[in-house]
Amino acid sequence: MSLEKKIRKFLQGPKKGEAYELRSGLVSQYKYERKDAIQRVIQAMTVGKDVSSLFPDVLKNIATYDLEQKKLVYLYLMNYAKSHPELCILAVNTFVQDTEDPNPLIRALAIRTMGCVRVARMVDFIEIPLKRTLSDDNPYVRKTAAICVAKLFDLSPKACVEFGFLDQLRGLIKDSNPMVVANALNSLFEIKDMNVDSSLVVLEFDSELIKTLLMCLNECTEWGRITILDTLTKYEASSSEEASHIIDRATPQLQHANPSVVLSSIKVILHHLGSVKMPAQRSAILKKLSSPLVSLVSSSIPEAQYVGLKNIRIILEKYPQILSKELRVFFIKYSDPLYLKLEKLEIMVRLANESNSTLLLSELKEYAMEFESALVIKAIKSIGSVAIKLPDCVIKAVNILSGLIDQRGDSLIVNETTTVFTNILRRYPGKNDYITLIVPIISAHVSEINKSEATASYIWLFGEYPKYFSNLKDHLDSLVDKFLEYESSIQLHILTSVVKINMASSSNKYSNHLQRVLELATKECESADVRDKAYIYWRLLSSTSTDSQKKVILAKLPPIETTIPSFNPVVLEHLIKELSTLSSVYHRPSYTFIDPSVYSPVNEVQ
Amino acid sequence: MGSLKTFIKNVRKSKTIADERAVIKKESASIRTSFRDAGLDHTTRRINISKLLYLYILGEKTHFGQVECLKLLASPRFADKRLGYLATTLLLDENQEVLTLLTNSLDNDMQHPNPFIVGIALCCLGSVASADLARDLHGNVERIFTSNNPYLKKKACFVAAKLVDRDPDLAETFMPKIDQLIGEKSPSILLGVSRLIQAIYDASPESRPALVKTVPRIVGHIKRVVSTGYLPDYDILGVTDPFLQVSLLSTLRTLAMDSTCSEKYLEEINDILTQVASNIDTGKNPAHAVLYECIKTIFTIRSDQSLRVLGVNLLGKFLSSKDNNTKYVALNTLLTVISIEPQAVQRHRSTIVSCLSDGDISIRRRALELSFAILNESNVRVLVREILQFLENCQDNELKPYITSQLIYVSDKFSPNQKWHFDTLTRMLRSAGSDVSSESVSHILALIMQCKDTELKKHVISKLVSSWLHDSTQFCLSLVTIWTLGEYGDLVLESGIYTEETEKVIDDTLILSIIESGINNTTFTESETTLLVSYVLTAIIKLSIKFKRPESIERLRVILNSKTHDTNLEIQTRAVEYKEIFTQDLQLKKGILAKMPPPVMKEAQTMSLQGSSHQ
Amino acid sequence: MASQVHFLDIKGKPLLSRDYKGDIPPNTIEKFPLLILELEDDNDEESNYKPFINHQGINYIYISHNNLYICALTRKNENVMAIIVFLSKIVEVLTQYFKTLEEESIRDNFVIIYELLDEMMDFGYAQTTDTKILKQYITQDYFKLIKKTPSRIVQPPNAVTNSVNWRSEGIMYKKNEAFLDVVESINMLISASGHVLNSEILGKIKIKSHLSGMPDLRLGLNDKGIFSEETNNRNLDLEDIKFHQCVRLSKFENEKIITFIPPDGEFTLMSYRLSSNQFLVKPLILVDCKIKVHQHSRIEIICSVKAQIKKKSVANNVEVMIPIPEDADTPKSSAQYGSVKWYPEKACLIWKLRTFPGGKQYFMSSELGLPAVSDPEAILSKRPIKLNFSIPYFTTSGIQVRYLRINEPKLQYQSYPWVRYITQAGDDYTVRIK
Amino acid sequence: MAIQFILLLSRQGKMRLSRWYQTVSQKEKAKITKELTTLILSRRAKMCSVLEYKEIKIVYRRYASLFFVTGIEQNDNELLALETMHRFVEQMDKHYGNVCELDIIFGFEQAYHILDELILDGYVHESSKKEVLRRVSQQDELENMDEFDNILT
User: Fold this and answer.
1) How far apart are the C-alpha atoms of B310 and B194, rounded to whole Å?
2) Distance between CA atoms of C117 and C129, rounded to whole angstroms?
3) In this protein, which residues make up the domain named AP complex mu/sigma subunit (chain D) (predicted)?
4) Residues of B in Cβ contact (< 8 Å) with A553
5) CB count, 10 Å around CB of A447?
6) Cβ within 8 Å, pair B191-D123
7) Chain B partners of D31 at a C-beta cutoff of 8 Å?
8) What is the spatial distance between Cα B147 and Cα B124, in angstroms, rounded to a whole number?
9) Which one of B33, B94, B101, B398 makes the best mutation probe of the C interface by having the most chain C beta carbons within 10 Å?
10) All structural domains of chain C
């Protein structure tokens, strides 16, 4: 394939020489050539090329007064240390020297990098420089060294403890500099997570320590505040007074410009709220949260808004009243990304009440006229949820939906509306005016229904309100004929409805259907679940007592309360504790998606 | 209006994607505006259409230019026509309404004295032909066959084939041409007639016997190609015209499969295949392409034993090739060979299994499908172990449902004994329990119901429970475990099971904890949860007559009642009905909830990883 | 917080990466494009898209910016809000360094990006993210600096770790001045029939500070009731007030006094919001627009605007953006006042009115062609009309600056604050169309 | 042997040429293109040239900075598809004289003309190396004569 080679050559130019060229640049006698070569090595590394073979040559450039070059060499070293562990030791001298440099920037850089060279033998050399930098005069160096302790622990917990670094680190929590405090805390938490030795106590809180942290809170950078606030959620107040004190200190942070500080403060306040004794005080505190919560939705970062909304949903479930007046804030904007729009609807339905229902329904109607089908479906569902939540809205909601079918009438809308209508009837069972309003609409569109949830819905309606369907027998004929073609969830509904209709009917009009459906379900059907159900019906029907039969088969469903999904209480408790974390956005407790082994060290010391 | 070149340069100069969008949208707007100009000259129109093509390549909208393309190709100048037709074939397809406006131009141009104009018109018809166009214009194509221009004739063959695809009735029209065409020697016309034969064969069953009669001519052509010397114009790395060879071989395969293909013809075919298979092997891709087609033909038609051996050997060579493409097609072909030469394929078992851990998903997929295909009574234990291991480490989520359903199929068919069978399925549920189809779940449950050996049943249930305790996030494992506990809980109550470290006793408390975790799960999707809770409810009602301790029974009732307000229709209905059953007297309940009779077993289904089935 | 941070292009291909912790295999990010594809693939409408993915124990948390993804990876149940804000801080810092952050600027500036990433995060923990401070010791013209002075001079500014970590010491100005801008952005959602459905005022007080030393400032607003707890009086109740980190939050919380040591140069001192719960502002500019579409041939638009502000006020640079189909062409427009221009790249007409006195009303009409072959895949989106404008010397909320006291304990200079007010349309001043 | 489509993608994932031999909606084309771009760009150099994708097979090969991608049916000959693409590259190389990506970007019409003399309706319809280019250049001449006529009149 000479042609191919030719083309390749033409387009790519000679390739062989690259490594060679870099190598000769790295050992050039001219300083600027060396520096240029280092830059190019880093560039190659950035685009994903493997330049580890240049390790020895790059390393030769480590002793330099040029800070930028030093940083680049250090960066290279961190990336490829593992490929040349033995050579890393050659860098040790420079590292140690640099930790004594008069310039704190270099001292910090050296200790930061040393910690990142994850080579076992580094442990032996790090003790002295780390000790020194942890008690450096310059807080910039100390805050960097504090983090380095965690890096060392990751590499060798034993050495870290034996050298006494844990004690030194704990001492830094009381450092005069807030950033050192925050990093010491971070480092200790990291170590706590990594620690597998149950006899080792890494960090314990007492009121004294908490007091120190609270003092420090206002002095910190935004990130330090988050660290301290997160620490406060891990502490249980010993008294109502202490809890109020913590809440008082956290409350001003609700005004911080960083939404993450705001959310962490909310978390702290909710965490300690339970320990506050006076109910009046508790509700006053809760009141203060509504505006900060809303502010999460007006952040300029859509992704942060989304996290905010996900957290609001959790908080709302525990404290439903907290945002009762804030509906309009959640109206969707045309420019919102779809994922935000959908999540906003979730909040809107949860805020529905008598006073805002008219506004809410007309807004939902707008969304149902949009073009993104996911939004349309959710809007229809939401209209249903509102009708189910607020009895006064039923007629209005039904009219909106039937208008929607008339106007747009595609099968997507018919399907979704059928399910919603059925749910409305389940909420208000036996209300004749609703039945006569709703059933004819569904009856007119049965042929367009093809989604399984909607199909299940209308089949259930057959069983529940047989009299309202004019050509019931034809429908049943076709359902029974195609019984085996349906998925098992539909089969179950056909089964139930046929049994019910038969039981309710005084004549034998439907006994054939019954016989056939039971035979099909028990003999031909694969699903064990459908078979179980069919046998249960069959055996029940063969039992003597018609009373018992009626009691079971014609048992009325109690009205459903809501179609807005809620968390299982166990889950909710977890989520409230895990606000602002990944759990809060997946809406799943951390144990369900975090691998427990994550917290143990990954890289064993060889 | 700038030139096309300027437009392309401006697009390429854009630093951000937003800039690029703006450049494109503005240019598109100025093209649209320019089209409105009633007095637009052809040169400007041509520039516009060129730009439109560039928009098309970029994936932009071009619908507004469709009519303009038709206007351009109606110009008398060749350059206009050439671009006009090119744009039409790219921007339009058979579904466009404006296509009707094209009929006239095509009709005229296909009768044009200039053969190149006829050529581009033909080409256009070949790309956008709808059934209507086929009916209206087939006469023009017919006429071209009578001309003596080979350039047009070859094109006409392909276009005729396309028209037959669009309107099967046209098979009759073009069938009479075959006889003359198959006598031609020009390679490109032969490519065309080969395509036309296949099209007519597919469209018209009546024509098939007549088409089969061309076999000797086709064999002759192949023989000629294979035995000619070096033809620089047609040679690719030592192989003469692989395009033609492959096309003829594939047509031969179609015809040889026809029921009217005589033994004599088959013999001829066998001979020519032998010749092809043994003559070419340069070890290069063009040779492999021809051999690959040849091997496919050998194993598709009724070939001789000796020829099949030759084919198997060639495949063996392919399989050991370092070139991944050759390896891939070998694995792909072995799958079709397995039903004909099972022993030969078995020989490659270790290679196939080693391909399961190949770094390339394409190879892995083929190897996987092949592993299942070569599975039989004698190697089932070894291979299933390999496959289960593969499944446990499998990161390709799309493959898992296939693997699980195939595992069910093969263990049904080849399991050495029942215990092994159940152990395999349990292990499968444990490692890929979220990728098992509902049919498979039903199948597994049916197997358990079928099992008459009570001790084995107990073993299965405790295995399930201990697997569940190990990992409760596998959906189908949960389903099967919960259903089984409901149905057979009494068999295992108070018996011990071994989990990883500790020995546990299956008692009310343990079962209740499984039930509750089923109800309170947070791992599964909404629809999965609905299904699981439905299973749990049935398990609850069944257990209500199996548990002895009143407080456990009461616990069951409480859980059941908690679901009577559920939003999900099925769950609510079920909970309400069961709640009523719960209050019935024990005798009646025992009747209703007696053991489920085992169902009639259905055969598990086998499936393929490739879109369409193999020949 | 984060184990790795990556910059990726629109297709998910990594452009630059930094591994902070080494607890996730380096090539993990290669899965990202396929994961993104999967999110979109499951559903045509991209409704599965979310800014985070959990895949095989790895959490991918990402934001998108200028056709880039900035993605953090972690295996732990981390503070996702903090990570997202941190990622957006990276965007903010790099934008301030390079003007715009996009593929090219990442490729061109990889050295300094690595440096910044190292200062902004250590072992996964956020450190310094303030551009003003970073610029003091991570300088773009490194090369020059080194030539002039030995690198030992470059030191971490004390501010990095000080409790006043936003201002350096020793700043001197000849003329000590402070400029205050009170800017209120109005967002409004107006129905097709002219009813206000939702409205909010997003206010900002911006300061440009040219002050020497370590001045301590105290801002006085017409705050009777503004910060009060009771909402029953007719006073304004500013909601979710957010302060720059320089403001002493506890002082404000306890005494409702705004005091601070300002950073040098420009910054936003505070922001506040007034939501429609308190009042639904009537539309400042009212739009009435009728659009009629004749399929396959043309589209007609008739539109009027009315300035419903005080007679003596004037709205400047009013822009009415009217959405039109993407494939429209050859617009013919006429306006009573101002100019109408077609912006095909935005698929809209923009009617610009340079000045627009209160009480006036103007009309425009336009007609555009539509192609004879209609777009088979056109989506019937109902894009709203969008408005831009600004009204000087006016705040909608009525907020006013009473005083700004400046006290530098050592230098004791005199200085005069300047105050300006302006009301403008926010990002989301929209009118729905039928 | 029916080719469903041929795409030329740059290493950055930009489309340089596309020809669809099946009736596919614009939306669907965009979707397939996007998915294939992601899949192919994420594959490593040594992997085989075949990718199973939905109901079809994708055969691709990288030539310098361009990926040549074809979609073929399940039963089609993958190895021959490689030859088809190679022939296309070869013809372009001769026509442009050392073809490079820029030639195709700016001269896409020529590339289409070559492709169309090689493949018709998804089938290779000319297997001679000379014939394709001869026909293309004859038609180029015809175009020039056109221009010439134009100038005369």
Assistant:
1) 26
2) 10
3) 3-142
4) 577
5) 8
6) yes
7) none
8) 19
9) B33
10) 4-135 (3.30.450.60), 177-280+399-424 (2.60.40.1170), 285-392 (2.60.40.1170)
pLDDT digit string, tens, across residues A273-318: 999 999 999 999 999 999 899 989 988 899 999 999 999 999 999 9
Between CA B50 and CA B32 the distance in angstroms is 13
CA pseudo-torsion sign C80, C82, C88, C90: negative
pLDDT greater than 60 at residue D77: yes
Indicate yes or no: CB of C79 within 8 angstroms of CB of A594: no
Q: How far is D38 from chain C (nearest CA, A)?
A: 7
Cα separation, B128 vs B162, in Å, equals: 10
> Which candidate, D77, D43, D131, D98, places its Cα nearest to that of B285?
D77
In the numeric block, the tokens 């919102």 are attached to: A336
For residue D12, give its domain range.
3-152
CB spacing of D42 vs C30 below 8 angstroms: yes
The answer to whether A158 and A126 have CB atoms below 8 angstroms apart is no
**The two three-digit tokens of residue C226, written as one number:** 């503004």
Question: What does the alpha-carbon distance between residue C275 and residue C271 come to, in Å, rounded to a whole number?
Answer: 13
The answer, for B61 touching chain C at a CB cutoff of 8 Å, is: yes
> How many whole angstroms separate alpha carbon A57 and alpha carbon A41?
11
Q: Which two tokens stand for residue C20?
A: 């902070």
- Three-class secondary structure of residue B303 per DSSP: coil
Q: Residue C294, SS3? A: strand
Q: How confident is the model at residue C232 (pLDDT cuts 50, 70, 90)?
A: very low
Say which CATH number the domain at D106 has: 3.30.450.60
Inform me whether the pLDDT recorded for A10 exceeds 80. Answer: no
Handedness of CA B540, B545, B547, B548 (dihedral sign): positive
Look at residue C287 and give its three-state secondary structure. Answer: strand
Sort strands C416-431 and C177-190 into parallel, antiparallel or unpaired: parallel
Interface of B with A in 526-555 (CB under 8 A): 530-531, 534-535, 538
Q: Which of C249, C237, C308, C245 is nearest to C276 (CA)?
A: C237
The structural domain count of chain D equals: 1
Q: How far is CA C11 from the centre of its chain?
A: 25
Residue B503: per-residue pLDDT: 76
Cα-only R_g, chain A: 34
Q: Report the DSSP beta bridge partners of residue C431.
A: C190, C385
pLDDT tens by residue, C11-23: 888 999 999 998 8
Task: Indicate yes or no: CB of B126 within 8 angstroms of CB of D138.
Answer: no
Nearest CA distance, C126 vs chain A (angstrom)? 6
User: How far apart, in whole angstroms, are the C-alpha atoms of residue A425 and residue B572?
Assistant: 14
Q: Is A552's Cβ below 8 Å from some Cβ in B?
A: yes
Q: Is A552 helix (H, G, I), strand (E, B) or coil?
A: helix
| CB-based contacts of A211, cutoff 8 Å, min separation 6 | none
Of the candidates A137, A57, A64, A141, the residue with the CA atom closest to the CA atom of residue A97? A64
Pick from D42, D44, D94, D98 the residue to mutate for testing the A interface (most A CBs within 10 Å).
Answer: D98
Question: Is C425:C248 a contact under the CB 8 Å cutoff?
Answer: no
ipTM over 0.95: no
Q: How far is CA C268 from CA A218, B66, C181, C184, in A?
A: 19, 54, 9, 13
| Contact criterion met (CB < 8 Å) for B78 and D50 | no
Long-range contacts of A103-107 (CB under 8 A, 24+ apart): A103/C151, A103/C152, A103/C154, A103/C155, A104/A136, A104/A138, A104/A140, A104/A141, A104/C155, A104/C156, A105/A67, A105/A140, A105/C137, A105/C154, A105/C155, A105/C156, A106/A67, A106/A70, A107/A133, A107/A136, A107/A138, A107/A141
SS3 state at A411: helix
Are the CB atoms for D95 and D110 separated by under 8 Å?
A: yes
Question: C55: helix, coil or strand?
Answer: strand
Mention every residue, 6+ apart, whose C-beta is less than 8 A from residue B79: B46, D142, D143, D146, D147
